[in-house]
Amino acid sequence: MSARVRAPELRGRGWLNTGGRELTLADLRGKIVIADFWTFCCINCLHVLDELRPLEEKYADVLVVIGVHSPKFEHEKDPVALADAVERYGVHHPVLDDPELDMWQQYAARAWPTLAVIDPEGYVVATMAGEGHAEGLARLIDDLVATHEAKGTLHRGDGPYVPPAEPQTTLRFPGKLLVGPDGTLLVSDSARHRVVELAADGETLLRTIGTGSRGRVDGTADTATFSEPQGLCLLPPHVAEVAGYDLVVADTVNHLLRGVRLSSGEVVTVAGTGRQWRSTVDDHAHDALSVDLSSPWDLAWYDDKVVIAMAGIHQLWWFDPIKRTAGMYAGTTVEALRDGPLAETWLAQPSGLAVSADGRRLWVADSESSAIRYVEDDVMGTVVGQGLFDFGHVDGPAAQALLQHPLGVCALPDGSVLIADTYNGAVRRYDPATDEVSTVATELAEPSDLALTPEGAVLVMESAGHRITRLAPGALSAVGASTVDGPRHRTERKPTDLAAGEVTLDVIFTPAPGQTLDETYGPSTRLMVSASPPELLVEGAGTSTELSRRLVLSDSVTEGVLQVTAQAATCDADVEHAACHLTRQDWGIPVRVATGSATRLPLVLRGLDAG
User: Fold this and answer.
1) How far apart, in whole angstroms, are the C-alpha atoms of residue 367 and residue 609?
2) What region holds the Thioredoxin domain (predicted)?
């Protein structure tokens, strides 16, 4: 066993959820600490927040989770935006603001999310990347409790979390909106875990659907519960009559689709098991209630079905409310930007959908690639966006234009599309006729969706402003729009120096305690490798079942990003009715090709071994 490593001291710009107190590792001595390196744009990080909640509750007297916020996007460096995100996503533990990624570097994190486990004596005993670690963490915590209770180094009691004051607003971090059949507004009030109906003024509360508490209960408007709902989709009347409900809700954190009968407010689960998807890609139709989903974020009626922006696995799915079936529609689960036939395309956390007025084109806000994509004639294309790590606020020709983590789109009758450019606090417009991008509104509080009223007015969901606003008359005209040549950003992380020529990629996987690799349904591991630009990789791109791969890097490309996706299937060992698990992680690794550099690239998919 290697020598034990002391955990680096926790230092940053400031702390949240501590009542103003600055914490040190000395303050946490005697507790088991999980340092969760996250960024609030990242869907995998949000999954981990949900995975940690039961552990925080079960081990409340011995475990302290510390969120270390190490941002990707420029907007995420804003301390006000971070405080909003901590409230928005129900983070009930201390959070350290790490805007320059100092702690990220100190703890040698390479991917969002990364977890580091620190024992009661202040030593790092495990690190792990990605999601799906809850069972392994529970076993590790049990072992640490037994060990340190015997040594007398475990101190039970309350942790340092101090809840902030409860705000009072009608809406709280609302996500999506649409105009109802009678002109009222339907809104997913995400942080309050409910759907609300507002009058056409966007302010007057008419009714609520859901209790307002986090949960997953079907029933009447007064008893049903949701968990951070987002997308909303009205079914065509003839479909709604057969299905028995009018509105489909993306119940995001529950990994479900829910149906709502608007006349009564009754809620029923229509798709999903409530388990997060951790399976293999297929093109089959499945019984909608037997299939696992993963953070459905938005919905649209397109091609005679409900299309789902499945943010959690970087795909589009479909749902047929009449046949009550569901399946995959586009994407391979690789997180990147690649166009082409739907089954081969790559997406990156699709979060907004809209259908063109003629019904031919489905617009997609692909948030992590800061891109606007579209589906037409079974092919996906991109009109704005350059990749996972390029973003900014730049108008002009679409090929050069930049967005920053857009979450919503709205198709206009003239064929153009409005964009909720969330992290730029702006509404942008892409005009296919000119292939240009312009800015039509700025200084908005994290706009997350847009809707067009029958009268032609544009409504903007200002999620961090907890309100719906209207674009000023004339904002969409040539006079009202403006051209912004703002900042260009690229996510800067310390690159990994690799040599040109042969390099060995090794993904190191250690099953969690009590688990073993599972080959019941074929090979237990899978490795997918690509590069941006593609020319960086002379050899080694593609998919295989081995977690080791020979790569050949070009000697004419000096820098780029290696995109690596690895997964491993495990099952509980020596247990009757054993549970099975799929561990998966995506890495976007900045690479600098330099003479005399390393010829091996090791990545840890799961590392529960002692550090």
Assistant:
1) 35
2) 1-146
Stated pTM of the model: 0.86
Q: Phi/psi of residue 227, each to 5°?
A: -135, 100
Where is pLDDT greater, at 489 or 271? 271
Q: What is the DSSP letter of 24?
A: -
Task: For residue 174, say if its preceding peptide bond is cis, omega within 30 degrees of 0.
Answer: no
> Both tokens of residue 38?
């996250």
The pLDDT, as a whole number, for residue 609 is 39
Q: Is the pLDDT of residue 369 over 80?
A: yes
- Per residue in 137-174, pLDDT (tens digit) is 999 999 999 999 999 999 999 999 999 888 889 999 99
CA distance 187 to 210: 12
Mapping DSSP to helix (H, G, I), strand (E, B) and coil, where does residue 182 land?
A: coil
The partner residues of 140 in beta bridges, in order of sequence, read none
Closest by CA position to 419, among listed 396, 447, 382, 392: 447
The residue type of 137 is L
Pairing of strands 123-129, 177-179: unpaired
Q: In the chain, how long is the greatest CA-to-CA distance?
A: 74
Contact 234/214 with Cβ under 8 angstroms?
A: no
Enumerate residues 6+ apart whose C-beta is below 8 A from 292.
Answer: 255, 272, 273, 275, 276, 277, 278, 279
CA atoms within 13 A on the CB side of 427: 26
Looking at residue 610, its pLDDT comes to: 34
Instruction: State whether the Cα torsion 468-469-470-471 is positive or negative.
Output: negative
Give SS3 for 107.
coil
Q: What is the DSSP letter of 227?
A: S
Predicted confidence (pLDDT) per residue in 11-68, tens digit: 999 999 999 999 999 999 999 999 999 999 999 999 999 999 999 999 999 999 999 9
> Which whole-number Å values give the CA distances from 521 to 328, 350, 575, in the listed order?
20, 29, 19
Residue type at 167? P
